[in-house]
């Protein structure tokens, strides 16, 4: 009986995982479709005429009409959207009107810069956010707890673009502790051989340590600004989750047996808030990919955020849709990853 029930259990578990996977794929497709439709409609409501951008202000009516037909703007918006989806299904995101390059190529060139910025920021913000949350719960009501709450308040209330401008003014213009806007000084920008798209890796592989240190000097300030944003959310939510666990019976039992507060936090409380921590970290990482728009613009960081900002001001519809699709896909996939990791690591969710 045991031998026959084991395969049946595996089959049921397989069907359960297949159902969750199918539901996730359908949800991903519908979410991205709705996001594209919304963005496509908004881009056509912009008060900028893409035809004039291509044809020029002094083009004749015949030239204007021809360019409009070439761009497909003579069709209705639903027809244009369906045509865009057909091209997208074949891997064609269109041609950017700004760079005159395929949007897919532009995104492949700019995406590594955004990933590098967001990854360094989540590593820094996550480390200090977890540390602050632990110290706050270890000594509730102390100055450590007050510092953690102050960091959370500042991270949520201070606009990121203002913090970026203040950081540039103080650490670049006044103190000269940080490199200027961009990923490298002009001296190195045109001598570095791009291999991976990640400036830290490329400069390290080049063997030029001065170039590598120059990349760090340009990277640390925007990373710190973004890390402040993620650290605030991680500290606030993890602190609240651990404080909620501290009043439960298993914690009181462990304390009654003589376990110290830090031991209780590490060995008993932390495993029970691991699912919350994973969710917060993955969603914070996704929000950093989205929130890098303002930071990249201020620091002239050549990532997807700055690319999207430039496309928005120029009403470059293919570039806007491509960047939106990429960022939206990352957000949905990271959200799904958070759910999957929580399901695997937290038995209470099964």
From TrEMBL:
Any one GO molecular-function label of the UniProt entry: dipeptide transmembrane transporter activity
Membrane association type: Multi-pass membrane protein
Keyword Cell membrane attributed: yes
CDD domains: TM_PBP2 (cd06261)
Keyword presence, Transport: yes
TM stretches of this protein: 20-42, 117-138, 150-175, 219-238, 265-286, 319-345
Compartments, record wording: Cell inner membrane; Cell membrane
Domain of life, source organism: Bacteria
Occurrences of domain ABC transmembrane type-1 (ranges): 111-338
Pfam families assigned: BPD_transp_1, BPD_transp_1_N
Gene Ontology cellular component annotations, sorted alphabetically: plasma membrane
Keywords: Cell inner membrane, Cell membrane, Membrane, Transmembrane, Transmembrane helix, Transport
Family: Belongs to the binding-protein-dependent transport system permease family.
Protein name: ABC-type dipeptide/oligopeptide/nickel transport system, permease component
